[in-house]
Amino acid sequence: MSAIAYRLPQERRLVTALPGPRSIALAARRSAAVALGVGSSLPVYVAEADGGVILDVDGNSLVDLGSGIAVTSVGASNPAVVAAVREQVARFTHTCFMIGPYESYVAVAEALNALAPGAHEKRTALFNSGAEAVENAVKIARYVTGRSAVVAFEHAYHGRTNLALAVTSKAMPYKSGFGPFAPEVYRVPTSYPLREGRNADGSPMTGAQAAERAIGLIETQIGASRVAALLIEPIQGEGGFIVPAEGFLPELARWASSKGVVFIADEIQTGMCRTGAWFASEHEGIVPDLVTTAKALAGGMPLSAVTGRAELLDAIHPGGLGGTYGGNPVACAAALATLEQMRALDLSGRARAIGATMSGRLNALAAALDVVGEVRGRGAMTAIELVEPGALRPNPPAARAAVAAALRAGVVALTCGTHGNVIRLLPPLVISDELLADGLSVLEDALRAVAAGGA
Ligand code: PLZ
Fold it and tell me: Ligand 1 center to residue 130 CA distance, Å?
């Protein structure tokens, strides 16, 4: 990896208890002004962020193992991204691509078409958020197939707008009370080797068997000819960093293609180098018809995309896709700089190295702690699922306690999972080896303390 210029000292440094006095004052203002429904994981307020650190308003420097949920892969103030944004902002902030088009939108589309899996002709449309990309992918699939049903999976997460919630699996906190949801959404079991991967005789279900189970349900309960799209995260993110058994995704993709069903890979969390490749779909050689991206794509600026087969995207009548801000020029400038940094710094290679470090250390720890059910993931998308000792029952209190203990020591780690019992590690891909090692040591101490009943 070529050298990364950091702006802030890459160190863990606590100068107050967390939260410090300035954060406490901001929390008081917040509760009188900000809707309660919008939560925050951290009790501290951010002043700056760079590389692998978040600096809070009281001067505490925290090790970031979350990247703002897999967004700041190139760092939260990567100099190349900052320069591109500054330069674009000074020229124009907005024209609306539907009114006055500009080159950077076209260049982002060209880049994504070249990077997305498959050698076929592709097109891209840009939007703002992940949820919006998912909504549009489903719109496109329904339009081109003339069918209505959408198949989603257990443990899926696809966003917070109405259709995105319909395809999302988890009730609390996402769905409860917010219905009714978009119709014609059907949910089938995924491949979750730790939990849903057993045959009746207790033997592990292969990926092909898990796919057969899902396909059987689709064919008998919906009917293949009614299905417009099969929507899946190649590794489920919010649902618990669930890596399906090998063969599951290829078998689903094969079935979809044989039935004229549009296969949509939601790579919003897994895409853009996070798993050690541009797209997680590449690990098993699947070629989705449509791919959604967002998060890390634009280095923290809001930008999302639907990329896919030219004949699908070009089937939509002119004016059928769009939005005021979709493909905003500042976000596009940030995306071009971000993609260039990902290439120049070989962040896929870096994600593989980070992943090897994380899984190596956590697997060693797991062998000694019966509260760890499994360490899993791909590349720099690694998780630890915590269970009740001696059982497989999810252990959300242990996950919460370990994350809280790590935070008290200055390390930010996030939880996920349908039961909230999974600790996920998504460090910025530009984090230094030293800082990553320090962050992992803190997390290991926290897990040991929890396992010993002391945190
Ligand atoms: N698809 C696979 O991971 C966003 C959600 C945070 P938006 N994940 C973080 C929260 O609690 O709101 C996500 C995702 C996958 C879609 C989305 C949605 O992306 O940009 O948050 O809309």
Answer: 6
Per-residue DSSP letters for 152-219? EETT----SSHHHHHH---IIIIITTS-PPPSSEEEE----TTTT-B-TTSPBPPHHHHHHHHHHHHH
Walking along the chain (455 residues) 10 residues at a time, the average pLDDT comes out as: 83 98 98 98 98 98 98 98 98 98 99 98 98 98 98 98 98 98 98 89 92 98 98 98 98 98 99 98 98 98 98 98 98 99 98 98 95 98 96 96 98 98 98 98 98 84
- What's the 381 CA to ligand 1 centre distance in angstroms? 15
- Domains annotated for the chain, with CATH where assigned, are 21-64+346-451 (3.90.1150.10), 82-344 (3.40.640.10)
The answer to whether the bond into 19 is cis (omega within 30° of 0) is yes
Q: Where are the alpha helices (DSSP H) in 345-432?
A: 347-368, 396-408
Ligand 1 close to Cβ of residue 7 (< 6 A): no
DSSP string for 111-161? HHHHHSSSSS-EEEEEESSHHHHHHHHHHHHHHHH---EEEEETT----SS
Residue 67 near ligand 1, beta carbon < 6 Å: no
Model-level pTM? 0.98
Altogether, the residues listed in the chain come to a count of 455
Residue 239 CA, ligand 1 centroid: distance in Å: 11
Q: Exposed, middle or buried by CB within 10 Å (0-12, 13-18, 19+), for 138?
A: buried
Parallel/antiparallel/unpaired status of strands 422-425 and 381-386:
antiparallel
Closest CA to 245 of 279, 209, 271, 275: 209
Neighbouring-strand partners of residue 412: 64
Q: Which of 278, 301, 299, 300 is nearest to 288 (CA)?
A: 278
Strand 304-309 to 290-293 pairing: antiparallel
Which among 234, 245, 240 has a CA at the least distance from the CA of 272?
234
